[in-house]
Amino acid sequence: MKPISRQSGIALITALFIFSLVTIAAVAMADRQTLDIRRTENMLHYDQAYMYALAAEVTAAQALLADEDKNVDHEKELWALPLAEEIEGGTIAGYIRDATARFPINNLVNTSGEKNEVYVNAFQRFADYITSGDKCGDQGGFNPDLSHVVLDWIDKNEQVEMGGAEDMEYLNLERPHRAANQAMVSISELRALNNVIAEEYNCYVGDGQNPPLVNAIKDQDVAINVNTASAEVLQSIHNKIDDKILQVLIEGRGEEGYKDDKSFIDTLDKELAFDTKDPEQNKERQQFLEDMKKLKLSAGSKYFEVTATAQIGRMQVTLISLLKRDGNKISTIQRSIGVY
């Protein structure tokens, strides 16, 4: 037998080396192709989930338009019922909340961007009520002058309110910025305010399970819906509203809610029990009635928040939409993905 030549050995090694390179390249191409397929699948599923969430928004708009009495809105109506259904390839769930059940923080200033005393005082009572007891867990570090901090953030002047903050305070921060000096666009702006810690922010904005306690609707005519307002918001209406009066106001909604703001104010007026024969109390009652006009209470709502969560395959989309209902017309004011 002839011995294998040295050239034949080199040729074999070269062939094995080339085969190895081709194998590695093929495996890499297969992995890349699998990754591309997975990525494309995820993109398609995300787009599909987003479209389902938009469809849920349209369905919510139709439910709001189908409401027979648009002057009265309460949590026992059909639009307030949550929705959850299985769809091809996944699930979709959603619900509608009354956005005017929350405190309108942009109303701390008037249309001229100047201080609205009635709302500033109401918001301070609102904040004080929240930070009392265990309504928000450990409240160490909560800002006691939150109403003035918010006021300085949205008013047009550079005058610092007591406990508030303007440009000089914000520019001295580790990450300097200026005060907005305009209405808030989103309640997430609260996190940028001076001396507002994460726990305090989470308390006002909510945690997914609990809805926000405030809204940032840019409409000076937005009213507080007394039929859906939380206990915290109702308590802020007057400084003499205690837990007993609060319970009466909530029970007064009944199954169909207050028919108008006057019936609510009459109930509150009766519970406050002003002695009109006493000049001081009569004066206080007149001030109370004036404040009720400035606070813009209502038994219905124009603004609704729709939260729709659609899941297709591994992809999930949560769409939060702010809708405005004006008579028989629905318009989308704002949309966000996953955050307020």
Provide a compact summary of the structure:
The chain has helices at residues 6-65, 117-130, 146-154, 167-171, 198-205, 231-235, 243-251, 261-272, 279-295, and strands at 83-87, 90-98, 103-104, 214-215, 224-225, 297-298, 303-312, 315-326, 329-337. It is an alpha/beta fold and 340 residues long.
Q: How would you explain this protein's 3D organization?
A:
- With 340 residues, the protein is of the alpha/beta class.
- Helices cover 41% and strands 16% of the residues.
- Strand 1 and strand 2 (90-98) form a beta hairpin.
- Helix 2 (117-130) crosses helix 3.
- The chain is elongated, with a radius of gyration of 29 Å.
- It starts with 5 loop residues before the first helix and ends with a strand.
What's the layout of helices and strands?
Layout: H1 6-65, E1 83-87, E2 90-98, E3 103-104, H2 117-130, H3 146-154, H4 167-171, H5 198-205, E4 214-215, E5 224-225, H6 231-235, H7 243-251, H8 261-272, H9 279-295, E6 297-298, E7 303-312, E8 315-326, E9 329-337
Parallel strand pairs: 3-4, 5-6
Antiparallel strand pairs: 1-2, 2-7, 7-8, 8-9
Show unreliable segments: none
Total number of strands: 9
Which structural class matches the secondary elements? alpha/beta
N-C termini distance: 84 Å
Give Rg in angstroms. 29 Å
Order of helices and strands: HEEEHHHHEEHHHHEEEE
**pLDDT averaged residue by residue:** 89
Biggest sheet, spatial arrangement of strands? 1-2-7-8-9
Biggest sheet details:
5 strands, antiparallel
Shape: elongated
Key phrases:
340 residues; elongated; alpha/beta; two-stranded parallel sheet; 16% strand
